[in-house]
Design a protein that fits this description.
Blueprint lengths: L8 H11 L6 H15 L15 H26 L14 H32 L4 H17 L5 H12 L8 H14 L25 H7 L5 H17 L7
Length: 248
């Protein structure tokens, strides 16, 4: 079993990256992990029967990257749960040993995110934004998911958002644009528009025009915010009661 004492070069580089990122902290990374594990993991299986795509090898590459992304997140949250760390306890952590474990698990996850981000950059440089006709619905989902988790490179996240917004109708999902928009706004400490970003207690982070948030959500195909919160809580509880991921 790996331990904090056996950190490799990539993990050290990940630590340096997050320490020097002005909008990041160990707490924020864990909270963001919760939100996107809960909201996105089921979508990778929704494209059964998808028609043939232009570049199936690229689709498979993106799906494999997204699979690694999700497995790393599930592993981290289950690992933390074994020592009693859940979403609403993250901010209040005071025990040094527990804090070190949490930091170590986050750093392992960041290594995955950094490696995936660099691969996604190469894909975008070579192919442009991978939309549905190029890589299928599930491949396009995977590309967006990887952009969502590129928090240590906000300029690249913004580049991805611009490319997605320029795609022809039917090539990307409007809700993916909504998620990435909120992600960027929250990182910039601005109010989010669609309520996709939670704090550690499953409460939406500050909202722009909160009275009309469900109208905006409906326009991009998202359920009402209250329903979304309850579904997310249920998924989180289900994940924590599943068999723990194997130690890596």
């Amino acid at each position: 079993m790996n331990t904090p004492e056996s950190l490799d070069k990539n993990t050290v580089l990940a630590y340096l990256a997050i320490r020097n990122h002005p909008t990041s902290s160990f707490v924020l990374v864990i909270v963001f992990v919760l939100t996107y594990l809960l909201c996105c993991r089921a979508a990778l299986t929704q494209a059964a029967g998808e028609p043939s795509v232009l570049n199936d090898s690229l689709r498979q590459q993106l799906l494999n990257m997204a699979k690694v992304d999700q497995e790393a997140r599930i592993h981290m949250m289950q690992r933390l749960a074994t020592v009693g760390i859940s979403g609403d306890q993250i901010v209040g952590m005071k025990d040094l040993k527990t804090m070190l474990l949490a930091a170590y698990e986050v750093l392992k996850l960041l290594v995955v995110d950094i490696e995936n981000r660099e691969q996604l950059k190469e894909i975008v440089d070579r192919h442009g934004w991978p939309g549905r006709s190029l890589v299928g619905k599930d491949g396009a989902f995977a590309a967006w998911l990887l952009a969502q988790h590129s928090d240590l490179d906000p300029a690249f996240q913004k580049e991805c958002l611009v490319l997605m917004e320029k795609m022809p109708d039917g090539e990307i999902e409007d809700q993916h644009v909504a998620y990435l928009t909120d992600r960027i706004l929250v990182a910039e400490k601005k109010p989010q528009r669609y309520g996709t970003q939670f704090d550690e207690a499953f409460k939406p982070r500050p909202l722009e025009d909160p009275q009309n948030v469900d109208i905006r959500r409906a326009k991009v195909g998202l359920p009402p915010l209250d329903e979304y919160i309850q579904t997310s809580k249920a998924m989180y509880k289900e994940m924590l009661t599943s068999p723990p991921a194997a130690e890596k």
